[in-house]
Specification:
This protein is α+β, with helices and mostly antiparallel strands. It has a single domain, classed as Hypothetical Protein Pfu-838710-001 (Beta Barrel), CATH 2.40.320. 26% of the residues lie in helices and 46% in strands. An 8-stranded antiparallel barrel has the order 1-5-4-3-2-6-7-8, surrounded by 4 helices. A hairpin with a 2-residue loop joins β3 and β4. The longest helix has 14 residues. The mean pLDDT is 93.
């Protein structure tokens, strides 16, 4: 599967939630997600940022259940994603270490899920980074990525908030913050 997603920084998550409901988006659930992000030197630039087309790995834990994800980083078009359940997060960490991945940082967020037609929407409170809205569509490998991306962008426009798309992923934003704090 290919994950097509766009995100925008927001100032007032409560207003966005009201606007989502006015558009007919359905609230699904709220959950706390803890993401441990791993990088591989082969896919990192001199600033420890994942290069375009590179891979990152993540162990996401929700309510003591962990999943391992490998993601192709494609900030403009959307990248491939492989997901597998883990019986124990430590097994995933050991596996990633054997593959040469190193843990970089943790991203913790409170996520509120909504659905609208064939889109998944998330309103996120990301520790250290702030509030965001993400609009995502999963497509098959051979589907038109540009059309899916336009659907996501059109949905953001429907919110009428003049939201500006943030092309950087949460991992990019976190690594930039880490790099600035090293100065």
């Amino acid at each position: 599967m290919i994950e097509i997603e766009i995100r925008a920084k927001i100032e007032n998550p409560e207003k966005i939630k009201v606007d989502l409901e006015k558009l007919g988006a359905k609230f699904i659930k709220s959950q706390k997600q803890i993401d441990r992000i791993f990088g591989h030197k082969q896919f990192l630039d001199e600033n420890n940022m994942i290069i375009e087309g590179g891979l990152s790995a993540r162990i996401r834990t929700i309510d003591n259940v962990s999943i391992l994800e490998f993601k192709e980083i494609s900030r403009e078009k959307g990248g491939m994603e492989i997901v597998s359940n883990l019986s124990d997060a430590n097994i995933g960490i050991a596996f990633l270490t054997k593959l040469g991945f190193e843990e970089a940082f943790t991203i913790a967020k409170q996520r509120n899920f909504y659905s609208y037609e064939n889109l998944e929407i998330a309103v996120d409170d990301v520790e250290q980074l702030g509030y965001f809205i993400e609009v995502e569509k999963m497509i098959d490998y051979d589907d038109d990525k540009d059309t899916a991306k336009r659907e996501c962008e059109d949905f953001l426009k429907k919110l009428g908030e003049n939201l500006v798309v943030e092309k950087r992923k949460y991992g990019d934003l976190m690594q930039e913050m880490i790099n600035q704090n090293k100065l």
